[in-house]
Task: structure prediction
Amino acid sequence: MSVSTKKILIVHAQPEPDSLTAQFAAAARQTLEAQGHRVLSSDLYGMGWKAVFDAQDFPDRADAGRLSFIAESGHAFAAGTQTADVEAEQRKLLAADAVILLFPLWWFGPPAILKGWIDRVYAYGFAYGFEGQGNRLRYGDGLLKGKRALLSVMVGGPAADYGPRGINGPLDQLLFPLTHGCLFYPGMDVLPTHAVYGTGRIGAEAVKAELAAWRQRLVGLFDEAPIPFRRQNGGDYPDRHRLADALAPGREGLMVHVDTGL
Ligand SMILES: Cc1cc2nc3c(=O)[nH]c(=O)nc-3n(C[C@H](O)[C@H](O)[C@H](O)COP(=O)(O)O)c2cc1C
Result:
């Protein structure tokens, strides 16, 4: 094993082995293993992952009355009474140096099974409410700090639909709840999303070229600069809620939370 051996968790959400998503997941595994890394994987459909977060997630309730997901999640995490499938995914996340989530864009977001993986695995005390400090350790700080994260997304529509003035809206903004909200929130460094556009009409040659580009992209997984999301505790949010007036003057919306130096 080389000294630079890392562990990478590959999570993918498409049941069809011939799908682009599954092909990209297989290519990622092969490329990273060939580089000497260790790959952990979560094939969500293949595992029969339970997508919905519900009362079955709390076999040992702290309060049998009105179900509070946050309170029961915190209780189950702290008491060690989470379900085995959730615990196993948390262990994989903790072991990983990088996490790659691969999925087809379904209605402008991830398939429900992947959203359900986040809902259930991201327990209180694990992905939020870290160290019992409420919202103090989030957006750049948290249990998953120091890990890298990358989305690999298959997009049916053409790139023009997702460009800066594209009719569907820019892809980086559509996926902001995942990159900023779900990956940066618990502390991970998030790389720019790897998107394949026009998958609805893609031919065999183009697939080959896209797979080659993906393999190439993965070579830089641990060297590439992450998206410069502003850290909550880096001074840009004096009250930990609102961006300082002096920063991104005259601008508002999601992208003010990316530090472009403007
Ligand atoms: C339920 C569903 C919703 C979809 N929503 C979108 C969408 O919002 N935008 C888009 O460009 N393509 C959309 N598509 C097309 C998929 O993105 C396309 O089938 C996928 O990228 C192909 O990759 P795959 O072979 O890995 O499934 C959707 C497809 C399905 C089945």
The chain is about 30% helix and 10% strand. The longest strand covers residues 98-104.
